[in-house]
Amino acid sequence: MGCCTGRCTLIFLCTLQLLAALERQVFDFLGYQWAPILANFLHIIIVILGLFGTIQYRPRYIVVYAIWTAVWVTWNIFIICFYLEVGGLSKDSELLTFNISRHQSWWSENGPGCVRKEASMSGIKGLDNHSYISVIGCALEYRYIEVMHSSFQILIALVGFVYACYVVSVFTEEEDSFDFIGGFDPFPLYHVNEKPTNLLFKQTYLPA
């Protein structure tokens, strides 16, 4: 296939997905969001697998990538519902940290325009070494930043799924046509040259 085809588009989409996943992984690490970290890690591995399959003409790898995109879309829909508190979910729960810590998204304290203030709690018994942290002035609430991240992931994944199905169908058609014209015949020249060789052998031993 030429360069300006579905294959090249899928390579571009996989590369874009890889960069977006790496960017998201960095901020999830900063926020100690362990469930998204594991999901991003799996996503990065399978996107690399899909990219390799596209470059090396391996349709089976692309099929695995296409199946994963459906799972990835479902995961990001869950993340959107989590931050928008749909279906009884709460963005303040410790679900994404596996109840290991009470950390929230990194964007909750470092979003655009956010000012982080710490107030000492020395006057309260038992909390002398603690401080109260408040965040004010955020231009955009952190949950909407997370929703935009997930929405972008869903968009790329859906387009990638469509192109993955298209590329697999093209690869399959090319393999079938190659088989039809004898591309995998191990002895094509033997069958062509068999008869002339026998005739030459008979002519050599004809009586004078």
From TrEMBL:
Signal sequence, renumbered to the chain: 1-21
Transmembrane segment boundaries: 34-55, 62-86, 152-171
InterPro entries reported for this sequence: Na/K-Atpase_Interacting
One GO BP: regulation of sodium ion transport
UniProt subcellular location: Cell membrane
UniProt xrefs under Pfam families: NKAIN
Keyword Signal applies: yes
Cross-referenced PANTHER family: SODIUM_POTASSIUM-TRANSPORTING ATPASE SUBUNIT BETA-1-INTERACTING PROTEIN 4, T-CELL LYMPHOMA BREAKPOINT-ASSOCIATED TARGET 1-RELATED
Protein known as: Sodium/potassium-transporting ATPase subunit beta-1-interacting protein
Classification lineage: Eukaryota, Metazoa, Chordata, Craniata, Vertebrata
